[in-house]
Each structure stands twice: as C-alpha cells, then as structure tokens.
Amino acid sequence: MVPAKNSKTIKTYCARMDHGGCGLLVTTENGKITRIQGDPESPLSHGYICPKGLAGAARHTHPDRLKTPLLRDGARGAGRWRAVSWEEALGLVADRLHKIRQESGPQSVVFAQGAPKGLEHFVLIRLANAFGSPNVCGPQHVCHMPRELSGVLTGGFFPVPDYDSHTCLILNWGSNLLRTNEEGIISSRLNRSLKSGADLIVIDPRKNHLADIAQSHLQIRPGSDGALALGLLRVIIEEGLYDKAFVEQWTLGFAELRERVQPYTPELVAELTWLTPQEIVHTAWSYAVSKPALIQWGNALEHTPNSFQTCRALLCLMAITGNLDVPGGNIMPEMPPVARLADFVKAALLPDKARKMISQAHRLLPNFMVVPPPLVLRAIRSGEPYPVRALYVQVSNPLLTYSQSRETAEALKSLDFLVAADIFMTPTAALADVVLPAATSFEFDDLGHFGLAHGWISARPQIVDPPGEAWPDIRILNALGRALGHGEHFWEDYRQALEEVLQPSGLTYGQFQEKGLLTGGKNYSKYLENGFKTPSGKIEFFSARLEKWGFDPLPAFTAPPEISLDYPLVATSRKNPYYFHSAYRQLEALRKKHPDPIVELHPRTAQILKIAAGEEVAIVTKAGRIRQKVRLTENIDPRVVYIDYGWWFPEIGIERLFDWDRSNINILTADEPLGREMGTPNLRAFPCRVEKI
Ligand SMILES: Nc1nc2c(c(=O)[nH]1)N[C@H]1C(S)=C(S)[C@@H](COP(=O)(O)OP(=O)(O)OC[C@H]3O[C@@H](n4cnc5c(=O)[nH]c(N)nc54)[C@H](O)[C@@H]3O)O[C@H]1N2
Ligand SMILES: Nc1nc2c(c(=O)[nH]1)N[C@H]1C(S)=C(S)[C@@H](COP(=O)(O)OP(=O)(O)OC[C@H]3O[C@@H](n4cnc5c(=O)[nH]c(N)nc54)[C@H](O)[C@@H]3O)O[C@H]1N2
Ligand code: SF4
Ligand SMILES: [Mo]
Question: 575, 180 in Cβ contact below 8 A?
Fold first, then answer.
C-alpha cells in the first residue's frame, strides 16, 4: 500500500486502557489517527494488541469527550452546567481550596486518584504535599499495596515474577493475566514462558482460559486463599520440602511459622477451600520441587479483609522454597536511572504526614501512605477524626469503584466542594461543582510505570491534539499548584515534569522517545552481599515490626463470612476484558463485544432458582440490590456467582445519573469489616442471593 500524504507512523506504548505496556504503532493522516497496530518489535509485547488497545482512536474522537471546563449551574447532580475558561475554572478551584484550607486546615482537603495510569498520580501527591494535606486517597488498599507492603515488610522488596528467565512452574494465583495484563506484566510474556515448557497450576474459582491449558486447576472457594497458602506451607515444612540452607541462613522465625501453620492440615484446609487434601498436597509438592518456580499473584488476593496476611503467606511460600531473588522466581528488577519517587513527590515538604493522615486514627500500618476510600467516606460523613470538606478527584469514578456505593454517593453529595477531572462525564463527575476536561493517551507527552517495580519506563509521546480545550492532568495540576501559590514547587511548563523524572538518565524527553523503553539491569541474589532490606537483614517470617505496631507478626487467616439461608451463594468478580473498571462503556467497538452487565450462574443453581439464561435477575446482599442479565456457565462452582463489575450506562443521560445504581456491584459491598492492616473491604467473597424479578 502506498502511504497517504501527510501520513506518519509513530511508535508508542499503550496506556490508560489498563496498566499499559504493549508496544503500538500509531498511524496518522492529516493529524487524525487512522490505524493502531501492535508493534512486532516491542520487547515487551511482541506485536500483541487487545480490543481495548485498538479502541484508542475511538476514545480520542468520541463525541462525548469533555471539551471545556464546566461549573455547576443548579442543584448538585441536576446536570446543568456553565462552560467556562480554564482561567475562570482554575481560579475558582484555587480560591475555594485555599479558603477551606484557611478555615479548616489543609487536611480537610483530600486529593484522590483512581488506578495510577501515568505521571499525574505523582504530580497529584506533590500537589497534596505542597498544599499541606496528608490525605491522598486511592484504591491501593485493594490494588497492589497488600502485595507491595507485605513484600517490603517481609523481605524489603516487592517480588515480581521473572518471565525473562527459564522457569519450571508458574503458580498462577488469583490472576487473569491473559485478560488483564496486570501491572504491565504483558500476557504475551506469560505465553512465551508456557510455550518454552513451564508447567502451570491455576488457583482460581473459575475455569478460565489459563485453567483450560494448566496441568492442574484448583477451583478454590472465593476468599479462602489465605488458608490454602498456610496449608501449602504446612505440607512443605512437615514433609521437609523446603530449602534448608536458605531457610537457615536467610530467614527469621521459622520455628514460629512452623507452629502457626500446624493447625492447617490438608483435611482442614480442604474444608475451608472446597479443594481435596490430595490437591493441596500435590500442589505443595509441585511448587516446592520445581526449581525455579514463580508465583504470578493477582488482584483477587487483595480483595478481602485478609489481603495483607494472605500476601504475607505467599511471600513465605516464595522464601521457604528458595524462589526469591533467583532467575525464574520472584525477583526485584532494578529501576532504570530515573528520579527517586520521594524526591519527585517532594515528600520532605510533609515530614509528619503519617501522623496526620486520616488512617492514623484507625491504626492502619503506619507505612501505608494512601488513605483507603472507606475511611475518607467515614470522615466526610462523621467529621472524625477531623472534618473533610473538599475532594479533588482525577482519573477515577468513585461512585462505581469504591465499595459501598450508596454511602459513597451520600458522602460526595455532602461535601462543600467536589472537583472531578475526567475525559468523559461520569456519575461521579455529575455530582461535582467543577468538572475539568482531561486529555488522555496519544494527546500529550507522557511516560509510564514510573513508581512501579518492574524495572522499566516507557515513552508515550503526543501523537494528536487533545479534543477542544482538554488539558493533560499534569498540566491542570501544574497550573493549580501555581494558582494556589506553590509556584516554587511546580514548573514554568508542565513538560518539565517529564524532564525532571528523566534527569538522572541524562536523556531529554525527545531522546527517551527515540529509545521508547528505558530498562534497569537484572541482578539476582543481591542479598548475598548486604542481606535483605529488613531490620534483621533476613526474610522475616516473624515480623517484630508488625508485632510492635499491634498486628499479627505471623501470616494468619480469617475466614470469609459464612453463607446463610437468606444469602446462600458466594459472590465474586473479575475484570472485564473489554473495559477498564467503569470506563469506556461509551466506546461502541467495545460495547458491542459485551453490551450488558452479566451475572454468571452454574446451570444447576439456575435450575433450582427457576432462572433461565438471558433473564434479568436481582442480586441481593445485606447492603443492597442490583440487576444483571444471567449467563449460565459450568466453569464455576454451583455455590458461586460471578457478578460483572463497573457498570453504568452513559446512554441513559445525566438526569438519571446514568443509572449508576442499577447494576453496580459496589451497591452490594459493605465497609464492615475492613482489614486491620490496610482497610481492605470484602469485594470477593460476600454472601448473596439471586432472585427472579
Ligand atoms: N467491587 C469491586 N470494586 C473494585 C474492584 C473490583 O474488582 N471489584 N477493583 C478495584 C481496583 S483493582 C481498582 S484499581 C479501582 C479502580 O478504580 P477507578 O480508577 O476509579 O476506576 P475507573 O473506572 O477506571 O476510573 C477511571 C476514570 O478515569 C477516566 N480517565 C481515563 N483516562 C483518563 C485520563 O487520562 N485523565 C483523566 N483525568 N481521566 C481519565 C475514565 O473515564 C474513568 O472515568 O477499583 C477498585 N474497585
Ligand atoms: N481488561 C481489563 N484489564 C485490567 C483492568 C480492567 O478493569 N479491565 N484493571 C487493571 C487493574 S487496576 C488491576 S488491579 C488488574 C487486576 O488483574 P487481575 O489480577 O488479573 O485481577 P482480576 O481480573 O480482578 O481477577 C483475577 C482472577 O481472580 C479470580 N478470582 C475471583 N475471586 C477469587 C478468589 O477469591 N481467589 C482466587 N484465587 N481467585 C479469585 C477471577 O476468576 C480472575 O480469574 O487488572 C488490570 N487490567
Ligand atoms: S493488553 Fe493492555 S496494554 Fe496491551 S493493548 Fe490491551 S489495553 Fe493496551
Ligand atoms: Mo487495580
């Protein structure tokens, strides 16, 4: 094909459709995107692209994109707006935030972001630090931080799977990488590892694509992963399958761990997990004798109040089998030479942040620096531990993604001031006083995976102009920081933020874009030189720090809530392959693939309930009731229900708040009990019932 006039193809990396990372080739003609392809030369994704990646062009041109700042012009949520200039909008936001800070203190303003997508997450933290607020809120209590913080406390780092080296066994645990590309661990890397001969064990309540090709599939009861991990530890210890040299020299608290796991016999664990004792013993043997073996751990482990302790138990498994920091195990890649996170966010501006955060009043882990949403909502509604009056929300849709949506709605409505920056009008933005139109991928120079532990950052250069007056979030935050009087901590031009990140590498953004990817080295068994980065220099099965802070110093299991006659089924969920959480229901190409919210039931369950495939049913918990359409599947246990997550209906219109509560799974979730360490609610193992309507 002869390329059209003014046609060019730019290499970039996919972003903001999940955690991003697939290499892309984006072709434009006369300033319009005409084609998006997977980049076969990308060392991360080797040409892979999914339907969301392909939908990037439609996201850019969608007629519903927000194009100008909007001020509320009528009652909250009534859908009446006045379009204003950036100057007027930012002037108003700065005035109101400043006034609230003067009246009630900087801590009464909370800065919130959803799943981190690019540099704006860190610029937001910088703004909060400059403003003086210790309260940055986000989904980290259910997303990565249970794994990361338990990793840091146990061994001084967050161990990620090493797909670049040969591995004998992949223990895929609560992760659906083929569909989610979680954290930029591109699924094609898992596929390559499997093709080169790695065995696969899948631990998942659902027989998914991976389970189909696995050597074994453990169809676990939702929410019981912690019990399984303790049970595997017991078998490995009692049958002498552990790495004795490593345990002796490099771990602390083996005797205490051994005692802790004693009660978790294969028979008891089988009862708790709905597995068989044979499956448990077999999995323990397979993982312990395959050298090396890695654990692909996923988000499902982080969706119960037991999140932190479950992750602790998995870390003990990695350590006890000698699979930490070795090729083909779970490792700590080195970061490329970029700015230190603490420097970039200017943490030094707020040295006593940990003491002042809302979380402090709830005695969460003192090194967990993001306030979990349930605690922010409680503070808004109760004024305890102090009043919260304003919320700046970017790249997030709390009304759909925070647990206990009704309380979220009440809390948002009762705020003195709510600002939302998004690319579309959402149910959350509809409740705001000011809505700011954001630019997204392809529309500004961005970089990805700064702050994540995978050892690379990628360039995501601007390819087209943003629609209308939309600005990149980093530009909005930079302008807001300056308008609030913190110019000394911000930049003349927001693009300097990127240069600041890259400064230690000696590269300009242009040179970085040429390279595309900046990777750090891989250096295994680093502990041999200086030990692990814990107080003892060892892997701490027993953590004196946790004990001192008032938490269980050994990995523990708390059972999920029991089912009952009223609520006889166990509800769980997974990420939808065609959407990113609550986002992109308005993109036709994606909506066509999955047009309705779907609840999945086992055919036997449906038969008992006299429910047919395709029927709309009610799903009910103590917290509320929603509706979704039934699909029948034998891939799940008859006692389990899979509920679709993230549903609202952009086509319904703002007057009905896009029917935000009709099919939204978080209407069903509650904030009691919350995990003690990180405030994690129960999103994956809650009792429910399904009814005919
Ligand atoms: N019940 C239940 N609840 C969950 C989960 C679950 O599995 N079950 N998962 C949890 C997890 S892991 C997470 S990470 C959270 C996610 O929670 P959120 O991050 O709040 O989820 P999203 O729906 O992706 O919200 C992102 C919003 O950003 C907008 N957006 C996209 N690109 C841009 C951009 O460049 N700039 C701006 N300003 N906006 C943009 C989108 O339009 C969308 O409205 O939800 C959590 N909640
Ligand atoms: N398409 C798409 N991709 C995404 C996202 C998205 O919204 N859509 N979100 C991104 C984000 S922020 C995150 S955090 C990641 C999450 O990505 P993943 O870690 O893959 O998480 P999920 O898809 O939520 O769930 C993974 C698996 O957990 C299983 N599961 C459910 N309950 C349980 C349980 O109790 N125990 C066990 N062992 N398994 C269980 C589900 O069946 C599913 O196969 O995905 C990212 N990528
Ligand atoms: S898997 Fe994720 S990064 Fe890759 S193309 Fe799809 S949305 Fe983009
Ligand atoms: Mo997430």
Answer: yes
The reply to whether omega before 603 is within 30° of 0 (cis) is: no
State the average pLDDT over residues 247-273. 98
Residues 281-311 pLDDT 10s? 999 999 999 999 999 999 999 999 999 999 9
Q: Does domain 569-692 have CATH number 3.40.50.2300?
A: no
Minimum-distance ligand 3 atom for the alpha carbon of 54: 5
Protein residue closest via CA to atom 47 of ligand 2:
180
Write down the H helix ranges in 253-327: 254-261, 266-273, 277-289, 307-320
Q: Which fold has domain 160-330?
A: Dimethylsulfoxide Reductase; domain 2 (3.40.228)
* DSSP E strands, 442-561: 446-448, 456-460, 517-519, 539-540
CA 570, CA 681: separation in Å to the nearest integer? 15
Ligand 1 atom nearest to 397, measured from its CA: 20
Q: Which pLDDT belongs to residue 626?
A: 98
CATH code of domain 70-143+344-454+467-495 = 3.40.50.740
Contact 312, 229 (CB under 8 A): no
pLDDT digits (tens, 9 = 90+) for 487-500: 999 999 999 999 99
Q: Dmax of the chain from CA atoms?
A: 72
How far does residue 14's CA lie from ligand 2's centre (Å)? Answer: 19
Regarding the beta carbon of 585 and ligand 2, being less than 6 Å apart is answered no
Q: Which helix (H) or strand (E) holds 293?
A: strand 293-297
The alpha carbon of 210 and the centre of ligand 1 are apart by a number of angstroms equal to 25
Secondary structure in 3-state letters for 541-570: CCCHHHHHCCCCCCCCCCCCCCCCCCCCEE
pLDDT in tens, 367-406: 999 999 999 999 999 999 999 999 999 999 999 999 999 9
Q: To the nearest whole number, what is the mean pLDDT of the chain?
A: 96
Domain ranges of the chain: 70-143+344-454+467-495, 160-330, 569-692
- Ligand 1: distance of its center to the CA of 397 in Å? 6
Those residues whose beta carbon sits under 5 angstroms from the ion ligand 4 are 115, 143
Ligand nearest to the CA of 184: 3
Residues 619-645 pLDDT 10s: 999 999 999 999 999 999 999 999 999
Q: How do residues 77-93 score in pLDDT, each as one tens digit?
A: 899 999 999 999 999 99
- Give the nearest ligand 2 atom to 572 CA: 32
